From TrEMBL:
Organism: Novacetimonas hansenii ATCC 23769
Name of the protein in its database record: Hydroxyacylglutathione hydrolase
InterPro entries: FAD/NAD-bd_sf, HpyO/CreE_NAD-binding, L-asp_N-monooxygenase_NS-form
Pfam family, one: NAD_binding_9
Domain FAD-dependent urate hydroxylase HpyO/Asp monooxygenase CreE-like FAD/NAD(P)-binding: from-to ranges: 6-145
Regions annotated as coiled coil: none
Length: 438
C-alpha cells in the first residue's frame, strides 16, 4: 500500500491533522493508522461519563483553526439548546463531534499498529504488527499521551493485586469497596476526573489526593481580557523577570485569570527565548503554580470539589509517594513530605500523575527505534522530541527531517503549550499550510 501522507494515531491530534490536510490536498492521498476501532476520541474524549466536562469553553472548541465556533454550530444542529459559546460541555459530546466531522472527510483509515519505521530516502516504509507494510511519502506522528511514570517501589505483588491502577483510563481490574479509602496519586485534572468517575459509579468513601505541592486546579471564572500580554516580548528572558511582569500586572489590578490567558497566544514564543537553565528554573520553581492557574476546572466541577472537601470526603495532602506495598487485604502508601514521612492505608491506589514525556523509558518500540536509528532526539529537559517550527523532527545530525513530523503532545520537547485543542488545531493548520502552500 502507498500513501502520500501517513498519520500514525487516530485520536484528537491525528484527526485534527487529517481534517486540516484534507482541506488542502486530495483526502485519498492521506491515511490515518489507528489500531482502535473508534477514531477521534483518544484518551480524553472516549469517556462516557457526563460529569467529565471540557476545560475549554465550547465557543473555542471547533476542530478547524479558522472556525473555532464550529462545535457550537454542530450542537445547535443537533438541537442541543443548552449549548452556547460560554458553556463547558461534556467531553464525550466533543468526541462525538470530532468523529462526525472526520466521518465526512473521506480520509482512509487503516486499523493496524505501526511497530517499525524504515527510512527510504525522503520517505518511509511503515511496518504493521500483522506483517503488512505501507509506503508513505511523509509521516506524521500523532500518538498522543503516554502512560504516567510508574510509582516507585511498586512491586509485582502490588501490580498484580488489582488494587493498583496505573492506566486509569483503561478498564479497572476491580472497584473499591463502598466505604474503603482510596488514594489518588496526583491532584490535577486527571485526579478530578477519576474522583468524578468513582462517585458516578457509586463509591462513597474518602478519597485522598497526594501530590508534591498539594494544589488543586483553579476554577474558570467569567471571561476577562487585557489588551496585551502581561509579559512583553522584549522582557529579559529569565524566569524571574517573567514572574516580575506578572506580579506588576496583578498589582495594577489585572486579575490572575486575565493575566494567564493573555499569555496563551505567546507562551511558546516566550518559552523559546529562555535558556535551558532558565527553563529548568521555571520548571522547578514556577511550573506548579502556572499549571494550576492555566489548566482549570469547569465551574460545575469546581463547585463539586468544594462540596467534597467541605464534607470531608476529599482530602488533599502534600507529599511524594515513595513506595506502595501491601497484600490481598489492602495497600500501604509510604509518603515523604517536608514535614516528615507518613503512611496511608488504601483499598485502591490510582496513578493520576502526568503522562511520561521521557520517551527513553516509555514502553513503545516504535519510539525507541526512532531514537536508536538517529531519526529523533530528545527535546527540552529530555522531553519527547526536538522539533522545528513546523513539527519536523530533528535527527542526530541536527537537521530537521523532510518527511517525519509530530503533532500535539509529542511536541512538548520544543513547545510549552501543545496539549490543548486550540493549540493542536493551530499546529494542524500550520503543518497543512507548510506541506501544501497553495
Amino acid at each position: 500500500m502507498k500513501t502520500r501522507i501517513a498519520i500514525i494515531g487516530g485520536g484528537a491530534s491525528g484527526v485534527l491533522a487529517a481534517l486540516h490536510l484534507a482541506r488542502r490536498t486530495d483526502p485519498a492521498g492521506l491515511l490515518v493508522i489507528e489500531p482502535r476501532q473508534g477514531l477521534a476520541r483518544g484518551v480524553a474524549y472516549s469517556t462516557t461519563e457526563p460529569a467529565h466536562l471540557l476545560n475549554v469553553r465550547a465557543g473555542n472548541m471547533g476542530a478547524l483553526a479558522d472556525a473555532p465556533e464550529d462545535f457550537v454550530a454542530w450542537l445547535s444542529q443537533r438541537g442541543d439548546g443548552a449549548a452556547d459559546g460560554t458553556s463547558f460541555m461534556p467531553r464525550m459530546l466533543w468526541g462525538e463531534y470530532l468523529a462526525a466531522r472526520f466521518a465526512t472527510s473521506n480520509v482512509p483509515v487503516l486499523h493496524q499498529c505501526v511497530t517499525r519505521l524504515e527510512k527510504r530516502g525522503n520517505s518511509a516504509i511503515l511496518h504493521m504488527d500483522d506483517g503488512s507494510r505501507v509506503e508513505a511519502g511523509r509521516t506524521v506522528l500523532a500518538m498522543g499521551h503516554a502512560l504516567p511514570v510508574d510509582i516507585p517501589c511498586c512491586d509485582d505483588v502490588v501490580r498484580n493485586s488489582g488494587r493498583y491502577v496505573r492506566a486509569v483510563w483503561d478498564t479497572w481490574p476491580r472497584w473499591p469497596e463502598a466505604d474503603a479509602p482510596v488514594v489518588l496519586v496526583g491532584s490535577g485534572l486527571t485526579a478530578i476526573d477519576i474522583l468524578l468517575r468513582l462517585r458516578a459509579g457509586g463509591y462513597g468513601g474518602v478519597i485522598t489526593m497526594i501530590s508534591r505541592h498539594g494544589l488543586l486546579p483553579c476554577a474558570h471564572g467569567p471571561v476577562e481580557s487585557v489588551p496585551a500580554p502581561v509579559i512583553p516580548m522584549d522582557t529579559l528572558p529569565t524566569a524571574r523577570q517573567y514572574l516580575h511582569h506578572v506580579r506588576l500586572a496583578l498589582k495594577d489590578g489585572v486579575s490572575w485569570r486575565a493575566a494567564v490567558d493573555s499569555l496563551r497566544p505567546c507562551s511558546n514564543a516566550l518559552w523559546a527565548r529562555l535558556s535551558d537553565k532558565e527553563r529548568w528554573r521555571f520548571r522547578r520553581h514556577l511550573f506548579h503554580r502556572w499549571h494550576t492557574a492555566r489548566h482549570r476546572m469547569a465551574p460545575p466541577v469546581a463547585r463539586r470539589i468544594v462540596e467534597e472537601m467541605a464534607s470531608g470526603h476529599l482530602i488533599v495532602r502534600r507529599g511524594h509517594v515513595a513506595a506502595v506495598s501491601g497484600d490481598r487485604h489492602g495497600l500501604r502508601v509510604h509518603v515523604r513530605a517536608s514535614e516528615g514521612e507518613y503512611h496511608l492505608m488504601a483499598d485502591m491506589v490510582m496513578n493520576c500523575t502526568a503522562p511520561d514525556t521521557n520517551f527513553g523509558r516509555v514502553d513503545n518500540p516504535l519510539l525507541h527505534e526512532l531514537f536508536a536509528l538517529g531519526m529523533a532526539v530528545h527535546g527540552d529537559l529530555g522531553s519527547t522530541f526536538a522539533t522545528d517550527v513546523n513539527g519536523a523532527l530533528f535527527g542526530h545530525d541536527g537537521q530537521a527531517s523532510p518527511w517525519l513530523h509530530a503533532i500535539g503532545p509529542l511536541r512538548a520537547g520544543s513547545l510549552f503549550e501543545t496539549t490543548a485543542i486550540p493549540e493542536i488545531r493551530q499546529q494542524a493548520q500550520a503543518l497543512s499550510t507548510f506541506l501544501f502552500p497553495t
